[in-house]
Amino acid sequence: MTVTPETRVLQSPGATLRYDVRGDLKEADADRPVLLLIGSPMDAAGFATLASHFADRVVVTYDPRGTGRSVRSDGGGELTPDDHAEDLRHLVEDLGTGPVEVFASSGGAVNALALVARHPELVRTLVAHEPPIAGVLPDGAAVLATVEDIHRTYLRAGQGPAMAKFIALAMRKGPLPESYAEEPAPDPAAFGLPTEDDGARDDALLGQNLRGCCGYRPDVDALAAAPTRIVLAAGEESQDEMTARATAALADRLGLPVTLFPSHHGGFLGGEYGQQGRPEAFAARLREVLRTA
């Protein structure tokens, strides 16, 4: 069954946010709370397939500030997970249904962890899928140095060369050697990326979120003390990649297991952005995990 989403507008300090509600909020209750699906900087469009597998409950997706339909009025610049956490707080409060369940992927998982650390009463269960928190890794200094290099490359040469470096980092298996920065830069054309600089510097990932996301220092004590049930998840095909390694390292700090999900970092995707995971199996696993809450 296809559920047509209702788009709503929310004024958050420094941004006009747009979010989509699938289902009737009046039907959300303690037995089936709202399921909030979030990414960052990926917007609501990336969750269309996954949301379609939860037509039996109320599902909410949103565009983080500076992406999709959510417009910034804060003067621009880089954002932090705490910035996004406050937007998420306003969103959950605007729903008016009480604590929600959250599936959050990648940068969205980092932002959701920040939300739980600051406002745990708003989230009943958080499934944090592959948060790229570099600082918890043994090779965190090398990863963060690489992130800084990607940011400098973006400012100097534009989207293509910087995104090529980002993709190479995301695909890298195992810890980064200290000499990683000395390796030859990847060719943007090899990834189908532009080699010429168009002068734009408005990329939501490279210009707004990358450094704040990867450099986020989670409040482990606050997360451990939160009443929220936290599930740290990674893809079966993501082993030894930075995001899966960071998930495992954070899980170790919190004394939690890593819950495996089908496919890879984008395992829930069903063709969005030209990427294909295993969304049906992914949704079944998510449903199972939420059912055990």
Q: Would you write up a description of this structure?
A:
The chain has 9 helices and 9 strands. The protein has 293 residues and is α/β, with parallel strands linked by helices. It folds into 2 domains: 6-133 and 216-291, Alpha/Beta hydrolase fold, catalytic domain (Rossmann fold, 3-Layer(aba) Sandwich), CATH 3.40.50.1820; 140-211, no CATH class. Strands 1, 2, 3, 4, 5, 6, 7, 8 and 9 form a 9-stranded mixed sheet that branches. It is globular. The two termini are 25 Å apart.
In short, what is this structure?
The protein is an alpha/beta fold and 293 residues long. 36% of the residues lie in helices and 17% in strands.
List keywords for this structure.
293 residues; alpha/beta; Rossmann fold; 9-stranded mixed beta sheet; 9 helices; 9 strands
Low-confidence runs of at least 5 consecutive residues? none
> Sheet bearing the most strands, described?
9 strands, mixed
Structural class: alpha/beta
Distance between the termini: 25 Å
CATH homologous superfamily identity of the largest domain: Alpha/Beta hydrolase fold, catalytic domain
What is the number of helical segments per DSSP (H or I, 4+ residues)? 9
Taking all Cα atoms into account, the compactness measure Rg is 18 Å
Q: Tell me which CATH architecture of the largest domain applies here.
A: 3-Layer(aba) Sandwich
Number of strands: 9
GO molecular function: hydrolase activity
Keywords: Hydrolase
Organism: Streptomyces longispororuber
Protein name: Hydrolase
